[in-house]
Amino acid sequence: MIKNISNLGDAALYCDFGKEVNKEINLEVVKYFKNLKQNKITGVTNIVPSYNKLIIVFDLKKTNFNIVKKEVEAIKIENLKLQTNKVVKIPICCNEEYALDISRLEKKLKKSEDEIFESFFSKDYYCYMTGFIAGMPFLGDIDKSLRTNRLS
User: Fold this and answer.
1) Is the pTM of this model over 0.70?
2) What is the pLDDT of residue 88?
3) Which pLDDT does position 134 carry in this prediction?
4) Nearest alpha-carbon partner for 11 in 75, 69, 73, 70
5) What is the predicted pLDDT for the residue at 70?
6) How far is CA 93 from each of CA 26, 60, 96, 117, 140, rounded to the nearest angstrom?
7) Contact by Cβ (8 Å): 6, 14
C-alpha cells in the first residue's frame, strides 16, 4: 500500500511504499507498476519502479500532479492481479579467477569457501529488478550469515 504520494520536481509523482525492503512491499510496487502500464493514464510518459518506491513521470502539457495523483489513489489494490512468478536459473561461475573477493569473505565470515558457496546456493532468491546491464539481477534476502558491509 502506498504510504505517501508527493511531488518529484514539477512533472513527476513519488509514490512511497515505506522504508523497508522486502518481497511483499516490492510485489505491491510491481502491481501498481503493471496496472499503470496497462491502464495508461493520459499524460504519463514514464513509470519507474524500485524496491519500495514508484516514480510516475508526466507531461505537464497534458496533465498535472493532482490529476495523476487522483488516478493513482483510485486504483483498487484488491483488484490488481497477482504477479505470476517463474523460476529462472542463472548460471554462475565461481572459478577462482572470477571469485575475486572469496578470500576476503572467508576471513570476514570465518567460513570456508565451500561453506560460503553451499550457504549461498542452498536457496532460491527473489529478483527485485534487473539492472541496466542485461543479466544483472538485483537479488534479495541473502542469508544473514553471509551478509557483510559494502567495501569502502
Assistant:
1) yes
2) 84
3) 65
4) 69
5) 96
6) 28, 48, 9, 11, 19
7) yes
